[in-house]
Amino acid sequence: MGTSVDDHRRSIRALLAPLARREPVVRPLDRALGLALATDLIAPLSLPPFDNSQMDGFAVRSADFAAGHEFAAAEPIPAGAVPVPLARGQAAPIMTGAMLPEGADAVVPVERARPPRFPDAAELSDHARVVLPSVEPGTFVRRAGSDVAAGDVVLAAGARLGPAQLGLAAALGLAEVPARPPLRVAVLSTGAELAVPGEPLSPGQIYDSNGTLLVAALREAGIDARATAVRSDEPDALRAALAGAAESADLLVTTGGVSKGAFEATKLALAGADVEFVHLALQPGGPQGIGTVGGVPFLGFPGNPVSCWVSWEILLRPVLAELLGAPAPRPRLRLPLADPLDSPSRKLQVRRARLLTDGRVSLVGGPGSHLLGALAASDALVLVPEDVTELPVGASVEVWLL
Amino acid sequence: MGTSVDDHRRSIRALLAPLARREPVVRPLDRALGLALATDLIAPLSLPPFDNSQMDGFAVRSADFAAGHEFAAAEPIPAGAVPVPLARGQAAPIMTGAMLPEGADAVVPVERARPPRFPDAAELSDHARVVLPSVEPGTFVRRAGSDVAAGDVVLAAGARLGPAQLGLAAALGLAEVPARPPLRVAVLSTGAELAVPGEPLSPGQIYDSNGTLLVAALREAGIDARATAVRSDEPDALRAALAGAAESADLLVTTGGVSKGAFEATKLALAGADVEFVHLALQPGGPQGIGTVGGVPFLGFPGNPVSCWVSWEILLRPVLAELLGAPAPRPRLRLPLADPLDSPSRKLQVRRARLLTDGRVSLVGGPGSHLLGALAASDALVLVPEDVTELPVGASVEVWLL
Questions:
Q1: A127: which residues sit within 8 A by CB, 6+ positions away?
Q2: Which of chain B's ends, N or C, has fewer CB atoms near its CB within 10 Å?
Q3: Max alpha carbon distance in chain B (Å)?
Q4: How close B156 comes to chain A (CA, Å)?
Q5: Distance from CA of A353 to the nearest CA of B (A)
C-alpha cells in the first residue's frame, strides 16, 4: 500500500549524502547565520577568560573578616582594567564583569555596604573606609572557565549557527567560522494550467503558487532557492529547464506531473532518466519522484500546493536537518486534540493545525491538498500514524511546530 | 521591588507605536518574506477558481447512473483546459486539478473503473466505453470557493508573510503585496573592556559578543540590524556613535552601561537626554534604559550577553510581534520540568532550557547572565513567575520555544 515515509526519507538521505561532503566555506560571523558548522568548534580560551565580579560591589579577601568588618577602600576597578593586587584589610570597589584583583576571593554587593554606595574621588584620597557583612569565599565571583573551558568542543560539526552560536564564537574571539555552504535548490513548477501572478487568468487556469510557496519555505530555512515556472506539459520544455537549472543547483525539485493521470508532464519528460516514481503512504504528498537528472539529485513533488509543501516539511526538511545540520528540525511534541479526526488506513496523514492557548491543538481546514487558505492560517502540523483511522477529542497526537 | 516586565513592555509599546504608522512599501512576493502585511488582503478571486477534479478519474453526471453503469468515454480533460460540456451517458477522463465539464457533478477515480485505466487515442476514436460504480453528487469534486471565497479577508493587516501567506497571495494572482517596511535597528555594544574578535585579548578584556548575538537575533527575526562597537567608556564616544546611528535607524539599542556601577558609560553619556533608567523585576535583564535619542526611540539593554539577549526575547520581540505583526511571537506552551529550580522572589526568572524527547523541559546551565555556552545549547526558555521561589521536578512551567 505504498512506500513508507521512513523508507522514502532513507532514499532521499542516500541521494543527498554527497552534499554533506562539499568543501567548507569560511564565513565571517555576520555572514554565517543559519548555516551549519563544518567542523567541531574548540574553545581557544575559557569563558569567562578570568575570574570577574558578578555584581557592582566591593572585592574582598573573605579571610579578612576574621579581623573585623571595616575595610580600607582601594582604587575602583572598572571592567577592562587590570587591577593591582588587594592588600590585607582592603576592599576594592569593583564593577560587574571587572577582573577580580589578586588576593580577592569574594564580592559584597554595594547595596549591602555601609555606606551603601561607592566612595567618590575625594573620599578615596581621604582614605575612605567601608563596613561590610561577612561573605563566603566565591560569593558573587564568576570563576574563569565556569561557562566554557579552553579546549572544550563547544559546538559539534553540523551545529546550526543561530544567534547564540555566533555570539558564542564571538565571545571566544573568533572572527570567522568554517561552515557548510548553503544548499542551492532549483524549484521548477510545472503544468500547462499555470498562470503568472499579476497576469490575467484564463478559464481552467490557476495561478502558479508552488514556486512562491516552496522557494519562500526553502529560503526561510536558509537555503539558496530559485523558482522557475514551466508553463507547459511538453516534455522538451521541462527537460530543457531542468538541464539549465542543473548547471548551478545542488538539488532539483519539480512540483506537479508525478501522479497517475494521462498527462503527467514530469513523468513523461523523465521517462528515460535515472528517476523513479513512487507512491508513498502519505496524505497529502503521496506521489513522488526521486533520482538524478544530469547527475544532479532530483525530487519530484506533487503539484497541489499543500502536497508540495508537506513534501518539503515531512520528507526533505528532516533529511537536511539530520544530514547537514541546517535547517533546524521542527520542534516536535505531543498535545491533545481539540477536534476529532478521521484518517485513511495505512497512510501517514498530515493535517494543518493551530496551537490553542489552552495547550490543545485544533485542526484548520480539512485533509484536502488544495487548501492553501487553511495552510496560511496554521502554525502547526498534526501527524496521524498509518495505523490510526480515527481519533476523538482529547487524544494525544504528534505535533510539529511551524 | 522593580518595575514589572508587563509595565516595561507597555512603555516600549508606547515608545514604538509610531513605527506602526510608517508608510507601507509594495514588495514583489519574492522580496516580502518575513515582513508584515500593511493592509487587509481581500481575495480577488475564489480558490479553487472553478470546480475541479480531486482525482485522476472519470467526470460523470451522477444522475446518469439511473440509466446504467456503462458510459461512453469522452475526450480527456487535462489540467488547464476548458472542457466541452458532458453529454448524457458520457464519462470524461479528467486529470487532478482539471476543470469539471458543464453537466458533470462527480468524479470516479480511474482505479475503480473497468478497465481501471484511461482509454488511449485509438480506443477513444473507436468509441471506447467504460463501466463505473455509482457515486454521490460532489464525490471527489473540489468546489469553486471551497478554500477561499472571492471577497473574503484572507489575511488581516499585520499578518506575518511567511511561505504559506506568500503562496496564498500567489494563488490569488497577486504579484506584489503592501508590506510594513522592515525595521532598521542600530545595535551599539559599549564598554572599554571590549576586544574585537580576531584580534588579541589583553588581560581584563573580553571579546565583544553582544553585537554579533543581538544583530544575528534581530536579522533572524527579519529586522535590518547593524552592529557598532563603542570600545570606550567616554561619554562623548557613545554620544557620537548614537548621533551617527540615529540618522538611519528606527530604533537604537545599546548593550551595557545601564547598571548601578561607578562607570556606567551609557547612563553617563545619556545623563541629560530623554532617557530613563529603570530596574525591572526580571532575572537576567534587570537594568534597562528607555527613551529617545535625537528623536529616535532608544532602548538600553544590559551588557551581559544572556541579559541582553533575554531583553530582546522577553521585552522587545513580543512588543514588535504584537505592534507590527513581525517577527512572529515565540510559540508558548506549558511543559513539566525535568529539573528542580530556585528563583528569586518578586522577579520573573528566565532560564535557558532544552526540550526532551519525553515532553519535559530540562534546564541548561544556571541562572547566571554570563553563560553564553549554555545559551548556545538551548532551544527553549522557561519563565518562572515573580511569586514562585522554587519548583520541583514535574512542575508545569511556561515554555517559550526558540
A1: A72, A73
A2: N
A3: 97
A4: 11
A5: 13
CA distance B185 to B354: 29
Residue-level pLDDT at B1: 63
Pairwise CB contact (< 8 Å): A203 & B370 = no
Contact flag B171-A372 (C-beta cutoff 8 Å): yes
When the pLDDT of each residue in chain B is averaged and rounded to a whole number, the result is 95
Report helix, strand or coil for A398: strand
Q: Do B233 and A78 touch (CB under 8 A)?
A: yes
Encoded amino acid at B103, one letter: G
B350: distance to nearest CA of chain A, Å?
A: 16
Taking CB atoms and an 8 Å cutoff, what residues of chain A touch B82? 202-204
- The model's pTM is 0.94
Q: How far is A310 from chain B (nearest CA, A)?
A: 11
Low-confidence ranges of chain A (pLDDT < 50): none
Q: Which chain A residues are within 8 Å of B211, Cβ to Cβ?
A: 170
pLDDT digits (tens, 9 = 90+) for B70-97: 999 999 999 889 999 999 999 999 998 9
pLDDT in tens, A23-76: 999 999 999 999 999 999 999 999 999 999 999 999 999 999 999 999 999 999
pLDDT of B222 above 90: yes
Size of interface A-B (CB pairs under 8 A): 329
Which amino acid appears at position B300 of this protein? G
B contact test, residue of A47, A118, A147 with most B CBs within 10 A: A147
Cβ–Cβ below 8 Å for B304 and A375:
no
Q: How far apart are CA A90 and CA A82, in angstroms?
A: 17
The predicted structure's pLDDT at residue A1 = 63
DSSP string of B123-135, one letter each residue: HHHTT-EEE----
Question: Are B80 and A192 inside 8 Å of each other by CB?
Answer: yes
Q: Which residue from B minimizes the CA distance to A227?
A: B30
Cβ–Cβ under 8 Å, residues B154 and B172:
yes
* Burial tier of B390 (Cβ tally within 10 Å: 0-12, 13-18, 19+): exposed
- Provide the percentage of residues in chain B whose pLDDT is more than 90: 93
pLDDT in tens, B224-265: 999 999 998 899 999 999 999 999 999 999 999 998 877 888
Query: What are the structural domains of chain A?
Result: 5-22+181-324 (3.40.980.10), 25-47+146-179 (3.90.105.10), 52-142 (2.170.190.11), 332-401 (2.40.340.10)
